[in-house]
Amino acid sequence: MMKMKLPWILLLGFHRSASFTSPIPGRPTINPSVSRSPFHLPHTPTSTSTSTPTSTSTLVLHATPKKTPSESEKGRREEEKRRLERVKDVIIGQTSAKPDAKDLELDPVKTARDLLEAGTIAENRVYLETERGMAALRGMDMEEAFEAFNSVYALKPEVYLWQFGMVLYYRGEYERGMEILEGNAKIYEERFGERGSEERIWMDACRLKLKLRQNTGQSVTESVESERVSESRDSESDLPNEFRKVVQLTRELFTASVEENLTTEILTRAKLRQLAGAAPTTKSTATATTVRDPMGYKLSSWYFLGLHHDALGQLEQSKECMRNAQAIAATKGDEDIFHSFPALHMTVRGWMDTGNEVPVAPTQPKQEEEDTEEDIMMQSIMDSVMGLGLEDVAGEMIRKGLKNDKDESTMKLDLIAVLIDELIESLL
Q: How many angstroms separate the first and last alpha carbons of the chain?
């Protein structure tokens, strides 16, 4: 028999009849007649044979004790065991996670019908009126949307329906819009533990419109003082930050305007302009290939820039941004209601006249867009500063410790240079 090297066995003596031949090549096994325990030192064979061996022997095994599984390994094994036990317990659409709960088929139409049949008359009306209002929004019918959503709130004042706040914004009912949107933001944040960013963006838009009314001498019934703004900010201070880039910048932009932080407003607008990129082609020539916007950054950036200009009363800038947003939305289809928002805004403002598109350049190749991102941001800063009045420029110069005793053009150029430096520093 071929001799095998067994470094983990110290042979002090053994029965001539013991065999170490392994059925698996390279893996030695001990004859069943010898104890398998690495801690057992047999002085006699474990075989029941009554024959007397010609010589006695002792086999000593030196082996490392089997490693005890770690707690994490035990946990993984137990979870895998539970997973295998559960694999046939739940079948989507057939079984329920709640005992004795009624399961609904994976058919949205039938599910809606079943819910209506199971609900009260009031619940059914809330559902149907909500659907009617959403359909009206898609169809650009603001009056019907208002009637439907207003009926919903009459039936269920605590309902979550932030789109009603948007409708109220376009109707000029800013005080009620703020109230509805603030309530919806709190509902969303308490329910999901995330920031109600869209609700608060529209709430700030209503607040800016109210401030605009105040500045023009119009009477308002809703206070827009800093105390209420601070309370609104404090209610979301413990929530995680907004992770969607465009929405986060939009929140910062509107907040800066409400708090009259001119520097933050200008720099944040520049960052949104960079995400929006070069102006797209017009609707008549735009295609999915000429407008590359897989993440939706361009569409949402142009749209929120347009909404911000609208809230500040800067209608020409808002019109240009909304038309750029609409040109991109036209390539995306109507599966997402957000894609209809630019057209909705333009319809309400009366900007949907044909043959009057803003002349814009075609989308540039990707490399050229990347090369001009800094230029886009710097141009945005220049446009923002050049559009400021003398009082705003002088006030910002004082806040930055700069001389404000120069002529208006020189102060604007100095302010532009300082803001560009701050932008570069914020991007490092």
A: 74
